């Protein structure tokens, strides 16, 4: 069994930093509205809108449930993707119920492209594109932690004798 050089899933916080933080704030806001929402609304606003405590509590629970479901969906999506690099090959696994496997022999890798936005650079994440032959990439992986290390692992492998 070859030694595993790199083994990672895309990171949720690194892939969606603003979306994750906003969703967590919505979860917190939903809890606050459900628990203490009726007590913080000014009486003059209550008379204009006519919202009772139970309705406000249901709105808070709904916001919390929606945000939790969104965060859980993003997390499951990130966990269903997996990249493993050994000295011989690159193995990309994608899918939850049905799986898609992409194996690339290390000797056939022609180009590795690392793309990082400003926020990905801050979070030390990035997108990896691997080319083997032709102009179409063989593999595109988004949101992996430490993409520079991935590039170095692939470059450090011996070139093919072709």
Automatic annotation (TrEMBL):
Keywords: Membrane, Transmembrane, Transmembrane helix. The keyword Cell membrane does not apply. Residues 79-154 form the YdbS-like PH domain. Signal peptide: none annotated. The chain crosses the membrane at residues 20-37, 58-76. Pfam families: bPH_2. PANTHER family: BLL0215 PROTEIN. This is PH domain-containing protein.
